[in-house]
What we know:
alpha/beta
Amino acid sequence: MAQRFQLAGAVALITGAASGIGAALAEGLAAKGCNLLLVDRDATGLAATAGKIRGVSVETRVLDLTDAEAIRALPDWVAERFGHLDILINNAGVALGGRFDETHLDDFEWLLDINLRAVVRLCHAFLPMLRARPAAQIVNLSSLFGLIAPPGQVAYSTSKFGVRGFSEALRHEYAGTGLGVTVVHPGGVATAISRNARGRRPPTDPEAAKRASVEDEKAREAFGKLLTLAPADAAAAIIRGIEARAPRIVVGKDAKNAALIQRLMPVGYWKTIVRLSGGAL
Length: 281
């Protein structure tokens, strides 16, 4: 596992490739000579990402990651297009804001289906193909909120801590083999995740619904202001980590600082983070 991963000529599958970190990863890996299989439910965005790729083979698949049957069929598609897979990057993710007592459980399940269950299903589906390679890498994107758990992010943190635990256990199971597992914890990356996040379901009372809508929009704006790192910079850090076969990649100064505070204060870290933010959180 100490040997660097050779990206030139490798085949990588990226979920959530229509925008954000996924699209930036596609461009960055292509620049390294990596052939690509790009997956997303956004057909227009997926075509736009593929249209920017030059010099390598690229295939696209429009797919909803809540569809377990479609995920099970993906290895056959990969085998037909390239015959093998070297890198699986589980990048796709969604957000759901609001306190737990304001969260509809159907929305919670929707988020878990995409952020956690799809990761598990994709890894399970592609394990035989990845294990057949002399060297292969699974790359699962957790989050800063897979290191710390803020109020108002119960659903998202649940999924991202789940990705972290799943990835670490899987890495330990395949230690000493050619299959490596990397878990990525990005901080505030400037993607559309906050803009596209689901909020709490509106109350039935019209006035209460109006107030809730205003509050949710303010929360989205506040969260969006924390997303400052360019997707290309995040992707570059992740690609360096893949080449180094790093077990964990923490991306961004905010994530690195929060990870340090959490290690020093595993129970009281949130009070410290709020204090250091000047009460902005």
